[in-house]
Amino acid sequence: MKSLEELERIRKRAQEAMRIREGEQPVKIVVAMGTCGIAAGAREVMTAVLEELAGRSLTGVTVTQTGCIGLCEQEPMLTVEKPGRPAVTYGQVSGDRARRIVAQHVVNDVVVGEWVVAARR
C-alpha cells in the first residue's frame, strides 16, 4: 500500500464483497455447498457466479450458500430467488452454466428452462 487512495480502493472492494454475502439485497443466489455439491464442483460454480456479478458490476444481488438439498445426482445446484417470482433451482451447473444463469435469469429475467430442477413459490 502506497497511498491513502489505494487504501480507500481496497476498503471499498472489501465492503462490496461483504455486502454481496450479507443477504440484504432483493435478488438472492444460493449455491448448494454440501459435501456432494463440493465434490461435484460447487466451488467452481460459486467462483463463476461471483466473477460474473463483479464483471457486470451488478448490485442488488446477494450470493450465499446452503448445505445439502438432498438431490445429490443433480449437484452442483444453484437457486435464484427474485421478489414476486418462484425460486428456481438449477441442477448440474458448471462454471459456464452459472455465468449463463446470471446473464439470462438474474439480468434478463429469463429462466434457463433446460437446467431447471425445481421451481417453488
Helix content: 40-55%
How many structural domains? 1
Number of helices: 4
CATH class value: Alpha Beta
Across the major sheet, the strand order is 2-1-3-4-5
The CATH homology group name: Glutaredoxin
**Mean pLDDT score:** 89
Largest sheet: 5 strands, mixed
Bin the strand percentage.
15-25%
Q: What is the annotated CATH architecture? A: 3-Layer(aba) Sandwich
CA-CA gap between termini: 48 Å
Spell out the helices and strands N to C.
HEHHEEEHE
Sum this structure up briefly.
This protein has 121 residues and is α+β, with helices and mostly antiparallel strands.
Structural features, described:
It is a single chain. Helix content is 44%, strand content 21%. The protein has 121 residues and is of the alpha+beta class. The protein has a single domain (4-120), classed as Glutaredoxin (3-Layer(aba) Sandwich). It has a 5-stranded mixed β-sheet.
Features:
121 residues; Glutaredoxin; five-stranded mixed β-sheet; 5 strands
Layout: helices, strands, pairs:
Elements: H1 4-22, E1 27-32, H2 35-40, H3 42-56, E2 61-66, E3 78-81, E4 87-90, H4 95-107, E5 116-120
Parallel strand pairs: 1-2
Antiparallel strand pairs: 1-3, 3-4, 4-5
